[in-house]
Design brief:
DNA-binding, three-stranded antiparallel sheet, elongated, homodimer
DNA sequence: TGAACACATGAACAAATATTCATATGTTCA
DNA sequence: TGAACATATGAATATTTGTTCATGTGTTCA
């Protein structure tokens, strides 16, 4: 490849790329899906809202581990909480999540 | 919540969850999207196939860094390579990627 | 053939991350 | 109020991960 042609291509692609900050945010967003504990938590929440101790039972991990991970999910607006007495009930924030999930499944099941 | 009711819920959800192995694979798949360098590489490849050195120029990182990341993308079947003389041209493997990308963008731009 | 180039890869290091333990916060109910 | 329970959080640790440097592999062309 000629050097000049190379430069042109690089310039053109750079110009069409989304804002760098946006791409960093996007990576942070997908990072949340990149852990099996969080994936399992989200998967459990597809069915219904659940308390923290239920989730801990389902994924077979410590309550504190689950609390930490739920905080991460909250920070990225993937889940919301509802307090009811002593318990906190978590549920999914929106339906993008399930779609992203399904697309991932489609890919790996090919 | 009564203890017995808790158990029932846990059992039911567990029964409906996908295979644990599948969820681990899914997490590994999304892990690939969870790094800004890889996101930027994929984003560049939306436009057209590119050589390694072009990609390195576009994302502003070392050639070896890009090669390492491309290997990870290859391992998860997200990109494919074509050799042409001294250069390797990378391109996206399928169109799931762009859809997943767009859904992520929709989420963070809300 | 051998020099020059493009790319791939192993080792080393630094930074980020997940988990656990211990403990703090907040709620209920006797 | 205080004991019991559910959840949240800080600190410590082990592991994973991304980047770089140095070098290996494969290709072209003089």
């Amino acid at each position: 490849m000629a050097h000049e042609e190379h430069k042109e291509i690089v310039q053109e692609i750079k110009a069409n790329m989304p804002n760098a900050d946006t791409l960093f945010e996007l990576a942070d967003f997908f990072k949340v899906f990149g852990d099996s504990t969080r994936i399992r938590i989200m998967c459990a929440l597809f069915e219904r809202e659940l308390s923290v101790c239920c989730i801990a039972d389902i994924v077979g991990m410590e309550q504190s581990t689950v609390s930490h991970q739920l905080r991460i999910l909250r920070q990225e607006n993937l889940v919301k909480v509802r307090r009811d007495g002593k318990q906190s009930y978590y549920s999914l924030e929106d339906e993008h999540i399930q779609k992203i999930f399904e697309m991932g499944l489609e890919h790996i099941l090919e």
